[in-house]
Design brief:
Shape: globular
Mean pLDDT: 89
Order of helices and strands: EEHHEEEHEHE
Low-confidence stretches: none
Distance between the termini: 11 Å
Oligomer: single chain
Strand content: 25-35%
Number of helices: 4
Radius of gyration: 15 Å
Structural class: alpha+beta
Number of strands: 7
Length: about 160
Amino acid sequence: MGDKTEMKVKLFPAKVANKGIHSNIETVHPDDRFAVSQLFYNGYKSTTHDYGHTLKNYQLEAKALLKGLYGPFLFDSSYIYKDGNQILSGAFVTLFKGIPLLIYGVTLPEHTNKGLFTQVLAQSMQTLSKKGYKELHLVVAKGNERAKRVYEKIGFREIN
């Protein structure tokens, strides 16, 4: 993969009683498209994923993502953390060659280190496990050590 590292985590049924989803966490809906594009735009600004894209670029990307550009979008396994109409963090999952793929994981910079992404990703993993999936894959850009550490803390390991 050259400039990217592929990682995966084994999914297991929840070991603790499910206390329900936090009231700010919900599945992604097609109507969230504009809010998702704002999350991408503001979340990737000044990061290793900042390629100079405009909000319009991210609006087109969010539309294509939700319509299945990277494989069928798993609305029921993709979660966002919302505050009102603003999305603060999100875990966006598609099905790629029959395997769940975390295609985007992003948090607004002012809300990092609060555990929001860990919460939405954990919810995605739990839902995928309940649906019978055994693992979740992702690809992280080389040099994005912060994201890689978060994924490793959750249990993701590099695929050799």
